[in-house]
Structures are given as structure tokens and as C-alpha cells.
Amino acid sequence: MRIIVYGIGAVGGAIAAQLSFSGNDVIGIARGRQLDAIRASGLTLSTPQGTKTARFPVHADPAEISFRGDDVVLLTMKTPDTLGALQRLKAAGAAAQPVFCFQNGVANEPLALRFFANVYGATVMLPSDYETPGEVTAYFGPKIGAFDIGRYPSGIDDSVEKLGGVLSASGFIVDPRDNVMSSKYRKLLANLRNIIDAALGEVELQRKWHAKARAEAEAVMSAAGIDWDKTDAMAREQLTITTVPGRVRVGSSTLQSIVRGTGSLETDFLNGEIVLLGRLHGIATPVNSALCKLSIELASGRMRPQSAGDDTIVSMIGGIG
What's the CATH fold of domain 185-318? Predict the structure, then answer.
């Protein structure tokens, strides 16, 4: 099995490096300064257990890869970049290869199924940072992360078992799931907080607005007949967020995007998923709609991260027509 990790950011970088350390055949697809840094000096992964540098081939585009029958593709970019990535994969000759969506939200799998027959979901539990090109930090210990994986829309097959075995042998916890989207909807509820933590600096305000956003979400998901996993996925003995010497955690993937000035946030596919469901089922979602508006201000740089207050969100809710 050759594993192609498409999107070498925080999560993709941690996965690619860890797989490489375990002797797996890994190819990365990256862009910009990250691509240049990995080509020049490899990818350095720092964890509570130490720091190591992985070296594996990395390309700027799928067109640079000659696809094989035993390839597995892991999508690890943020959702706003998924459509373009899928189009490039298809144009490059990928066809029957399994495509695993190691991404937040629930929009990537149905989009991938438009292009590829063998699509899989993966719930990612891997707190990690990418600030400096060529460097990634992961904060879980003693295991580096955990994934629930399964075929989309449902099922467990040979591809799930094979990739699960490789990931388990490389230091991850893997749980094959017959209904992986139930797990991904559970993670979506947690990810509603990403934009809240990026916008608000006070912990109590973060908790308050996450509770409101989540209440809206659970109402619309129930109306839509969505069955989400009610268990606490993080209650695992081998997953503890801890410190990494010389590193200070930036925060959620949304806050990292703001800090790096990417100009694009994934909020429209997290909180925006709840807005979509609300519109489809005739349920108002003023809090999540306001948070989507707030993300535009943060992505554009018109608002500094963690500078908003209670009144900021209240005023945005009031401005929703």
C-alpha cells in the first residue's frame, strides 16, 4: 500500500510524518513555502515524546504522481479546498483508488462521491499546529491521535481494515465504524466552537456561545433525522493533551488559518452546515448564522482574533434578516 497524503498542513503533516517513521511508502502533496521546506529539509514533527524529521517525496500537484492500483489517498486539506483537489485528482488519473476524507465537517464525503466510487470518512482527533514551514507539532500523548474510519455512506471493507492496520502500527488509535458519519456529526458539534474560540478571548463567553450554537445544531439535526454519536469520543486513556517542549499551542484549525492569514476559513462548512440544515427544514439558526458572518470579518483581517465580545455576536444576530 502506498499512501498519498493530499494537504500537508498540521493534520496531514502529522499523519504523513508518523507513517513515514514507521517505514510506510508515503507521498505528500503540499504547496507554497511548506512544499519548498519539505523538499529542502524534510518535515519535522514535534510531539510530547520528542522531535524527529521525516523525509518523503512531496509534490505540488497530483499530476506529478503516476497513480498505482495499491494507492490510498488521504484528503487532509480544509473543506474550502476540497473541490479543486478532487478535480485535480481526477484529471491526474486517480479512479478506483480509495479516497479517505480526514477532514472536519460532513460536506467532503458527498462531494468526493461525485468524483470517485470508493469514498471513506474519517473522524480526526489529532490536536496539532502548523505555523512554520517544514514544522508540525502534535499534542496528544502517549498516542499521537485517533481516528474513526469507515466507508461512505456506511460500511466497513478491506480498505478500512488495511488502512486501519497501517495507522494502528504507526502510533494511532483506529476505530473502524460501520456508520462513520454518526461519528463525524458528533465531531461537527464540537467544531462549532472553532470560530467562537478564534473570535472570543474569554473562556466563559466561549462556553456560553458554544452551548447556544450547539443547541441550535442539535435541534436542526434532530429535525433532519440525523443520528449522531452521543458518546464522548475523547474519553480514551491513551489520548491526553500535554505540553511539547519549546512549543505553545496556537489553537483550533480555524485560529491557525487566521494567524497564517490564509484569507479562507472552514466556518461555512462547520457552523454553515447547521445553517444549511436549518434552511432545509425551516428552523431558524441565528447564532450559527451570526458566527458565519463573524468568520468573514476575521478572515479578511478587519477583526483581530480573540478581540470580539458578547455584544459583537449579539449585534450580528440582530442584523440577520
Answer: N-(1-d-carboxylethyl)-l-norvaline Dehydrogenase; domain 2 (1.10.1040)
